[in-house]
Amino acid sequence: MQATIEQMLSSYNDRAPLSEAFTIPATWYTDPRIAEMERLKVFSKTWQLVARTSQLQAPGDFVATRVAAEPIVVVRGTDGALRAFFNVCRHHAAAVVTQPCGRASILQCPYHGWKYGLDGALKGMPEFEGVENFDRAQNGLLPIRVETWECFVFVNLDPNATSLREFLGGLVKRVAPLGISNLHLFERRTYDIHCNWKVFVDNYLDGGYHVPHLHKGLNSVLDYKQYTIENEDRYCLQSSPMVASDEDSATGATRKGDRAWYFWQYPNLMINCYEGYMDTNYVVPVDADHCTVIFDFYFSDVSEAHREYNAESVNVGNRVQDEDLGICEDVQRGLKSRAYAAGRLSVRREAGEQLFHRLLAADLKSK
Ligand code: FES
Ligand SMILES: [Fe+2]
């Protein structure tokens, strides 16, 4: 007989100390009811990264995307204010903005031509004379919360959510010295992975546990024994001193500086920094068995002279990602096996995973 949602949720004990703790149950990674619950209680209530501030500088600049399966659009107004709306026409629900990004002076629905201002107000409806009891002021695009931090733009579908700053908590202070807003986007790579989004996050948060086994190249530049794990608020920082390597020349040449900084912010954002380098990983759940991970690669110098170096650096990142991707898909198969229910956690390495599982459990168990 299939377990009820209540049974599934209560089978995770979020109060166990790390030395006694289990992972969240395997069913949380495979059951579509949990995936839908996450859409409503996690992704519809947390701040989600949707754009870079550099994409939304001038009046009329817009970015359209989806958050928790909801179509949304972020627009810079003529008054300079940044606004976000559900990208759903109030007439018959078509997407008003159909390009992923661009600049416009008016937002016009492609279906029947209704027009909205950059502030979301309904400006015009062709052939609508004679319609009674229709209040144009009540039929603008529905607004969504939007706030920025560093070079990133976030939205939150929950009108009652805390501010972005409060949500990020200690992360704001921790990231500030790294100067990430001075970096420039070089390339985006998108990976469709046959695993639950949490498998990807768990893999990221295992405190370097898998690095010596799965990422031999990356392992050659990290001082694995000195790897630290720091949990606070809704973020985990994994950090490692860097060592010189001649074992793997491409990795050694493109992963530089004193330390590697790997930030994870609940629920689905990672920010990885080396000297003059950042990549962000944004994990989007597709369904219980699939996720998409968007990698954005940033560098301090994106001029033509640095193109080759930057491209090589992206390739190094891509190789690590390919190694992770294979194991994540393998884990998803294992989680579906009758042989597995939940696993234990390494006290030395896997505190970040426990933080993730506790935050998630708190959200899923909330009313
Ligand atoms: S659905 Fe947008 S104008 Fe009809
Ligand atoms: Fe990895």
Separation of the first and last Cα atoms: 26 Å
Helix count equals 10
Which cofactors or ions or other ligands sit in this model? FE2/S2 (inorganic) cluster, fe (ii) ion
- The helix-and-strand class reads alpha+beta
Q: Indicate the overall shape.
A: globular
Regions with pLDDT < 50 over 5+ consecutive residues?
none
Describe it.
The mean pLDDT is 96. The chain has a seven-stranded antiparallel β-sheet with strand order 1-10-9-4-3-2-5, with no helix packed on it. The chain has a seven-stranded antiparallel β-sheet with strand order 11-17-16-15-14-13-12. The longest helix has 29 residues. A hairpin with a 2-residue loop joins strand 12 and strand 13. It is globular. It is of the alpha+beta class. Helices cover 26% and strands 28% of the residues. Fe (ii) ion (FE2) binds next to helix 9.
Q: What does the secondary structure layout of this molecule look like, with pairings?
A:
Blueprint: H1 5-10, H2 32-43, E1 48-52, E2 61-67, E3 70-76, E4 82-86, E5 101-103, E6 107-108, E7 115-116, E8 122-124, E9 143-149, E10 152-156, H3 164-168, H4 171-175, E11 184-193, H5 197-204, H6 211-214, H7 216-219, E12 228-232, E13 235-241, H8 249-254, E14 259-265, E15 269-274, E16 277-287, E17 290-299, H9 307-335, H10 351-365
Antiparallel strand pairs: 1-10, 2-3, 2-5, 3-4, 4-9, 6-7, 7-8, 9-10, 11-17, 12-13, 13-14, 14-15, 15-16, 16-17
The structure holds FE2/S2 (inorganic) cluster and fe (ii) ion.
